[in-house]
Amino acid sequence: MSVYKKKYFFWIGYSKDNAGNWVWEDKSSDPFTNWDTNEPSTASISKCAYADMSEDNLPWSAGNCNIGMPYVCEYVPCMAGNKIC
User: Where is the C-type lectin domain (predicted)?
Assistant: First the structure.
């Protein structure tokens, strides 16, 4: 991680599966990525993606999933058409 404190980082629900493919936690197939330069890391322990709020474009990096950081979740309220309420 960079020199910034981890308060600037948050997990985004994107991780590397056992086959080495990056997948969204909700199993969606959105192809969007925002990897930072030289990312994702190829280190075997770097299996979860996080965003860096210290940069304007919120670049992603790969890190150890066991590091305690905040995370974001997608939430669709019932009034927005969510059928599972």
Answer: 10-74
Element containing residue 14 per DSSP (H, E): strand 9-16
User: HEC string of 46-70?
Assistant: EEEEEEECCCCCCCEEEEECCCCCC
**CA 34, 29, 37: angle at the middle one, nearest 5?**
15
In this structure, are residues 25 and 13 in contact, taking their beta carbons and an 8 Å threshold? yes
Which tokens belong to 46? 């770097």
pTM (2 decimals)? 0.78
Note the CATH number of domain 6-80.
Answer: 3.10.100.10
Distance of alpha carbon 63 from alpha carbon 8, whole angstroms: 14
Q: What share of the chain is helix, strand, coil (3-state, %, to 5)?
A: 5, 30, 65
